Amino acid sequence: MAGHAGPGEFERALLAWLGLHARFDHSVVFAYRGSARPPMLYETFSPAESHVFVALYQDGAYLLDPFHRAAIGGCEGFRRMRELAPDRFYTSEYFRSYYSQTGLAEEVGFFVQLPEQTSVVWSLMRLAASGPFGTAEVRGLRDLAPIVLALCAQHWRDLPEFGEAGSRVTTLPLPGSDLDRARLWASQSLTAREGEIVNLVLQGHSSDSISRLLHISTGTVKVHRRNIRHKLGIHSQAGLFARFLSLLNETG
């Protein structure tokens, strides 16, 4: 099936089938491997929409995306964004500065694990005007997940190396190696623990959530956050997010 389909033919056929079971406004497929810049495999956006959903995302926003974190963590099957997002995701600076630009009411995805620590995530999206997916639609998509995962695993079983010359996967240049975010924050005089906490704060975790994840007290988390603000000379989530993007640009 994958060997005989023309460019985009498989994706259009699968989307048409999924459309019989749920309404959605947009769809995009990304491949992930660690923190490497993810190639886009398929999209349904206009050029203006693609700037937000693809270009800005690939420029670094993906590193804070719950879907990216779940994919590289081995997640497989059907998931809703609300099931994966940290407790403060919808009030995080990442959400305000980037994700809100998408105008989405909800995003759901099929997570497919491939060899070589690579995963593919096929996202279905509903805009604010359409509202979230209905309960019956979500149930129907979950039921279809085993079939979708099997088809996608077959279709992308020979996914080329990231950045491979002539690859049908890559539309934008990829970095030569994964971004080392620990080293990124070390360049700002943060300790390894402070770097962990910065990354979790940027993803949308509260101090209580970070406390549970790192098995330290909430008070200790708050001390670390205070030290981080002092070292970086910033006093807001917006300032932290801006510093993150600046460091990514310098690294890239």
UniProtKB/TrEMBL annotation:
Residues 183-248 form the HTH luxR-type domain. SMART domains: HTH_LUXR (SM00421). Transmembrane segments: none annotated. It holds the Pfam family GerE. SUPFAM superfamilies: C-terminal effector domain of the bipartite response regulators (SSF46894). It comes from the Bacteria. Keywords: DNA-binding, Transcription, Transcription regulation. This is Helix-turn-helix transcriptional regulator. It comes from Labrys neptuniae.
